[in-house]
GAF domain-containing protein, putative methionine-R-sulfoxide reductase (Arsukibacterium tuosuense), 225 residues
Amino acid sequence: MQAFEYLQRSGLLDEYGDISAEVEHIRRGLTDYLQTASGEVHWQFQVPELGEGGACSLFGQLAAEPYSLLPILGGQTPANQLALSKLSAIAGYYREYSGQDWFGIYQARPNVDAEQVLVKLAYYGAPSRPEFPLNSEFAKISNNSTVGLSGRARVINSVPDYLAAGGEYYTCDPKVQAEACLPLFDQSGKIAGIVDAEHFQQAIFTSAAMALLVAVCLVVPEYLP
């Protein structure tokens, strides 16, 4: 998918204008970087305890057992190892050039209970929820699920203002002041997952910041397992 089509489909064109030239420039640099780059693979990671009903994470309280990607990905195959290595490298690249405090790459796929979810494959930052249900009920409180179902980006440059206006928000880390949740599309145009970027300051998602994040969104689907 080309940058201009992505901006149209995700709904970002109206808000940020035609930044496709900037996106494509960054995309080429990231693609070249990934020819040789690889990142550290984490098959399991610590996750927060979930609150009542699983609706909210209990920040600062970690579950006794880490989350493992092995069941949902079908094992530690060479293909999965390579995919996670590249996704980890993308997360590292984004961290270096964005300055965002938290970032995650999620793929849409059925979990071990045959429920459609967004599963976190690579990230940096504080421990966070590993799976988000992909259903209309959970989307009422989750930007991740909303974007994963709709394919429309959601950018919140001020979480306090968003909440004051009546917006629903899944709070994992109370320090987060701004969030950008963008869809991923596969070659057929189907929603393949999302990326989520968060910052502890407001008004951080400028046109330049979004060009980098959109470029990431165009590259990630090539490496999903």
Observations:
- The chain has nine helices and ten strands.
- The chain has one domain: 3-223.
- The chain has a mean pLDDT of 93.
- The domain at 3-223 is CATH 3.30.450.40 (Beta-Lactamase).
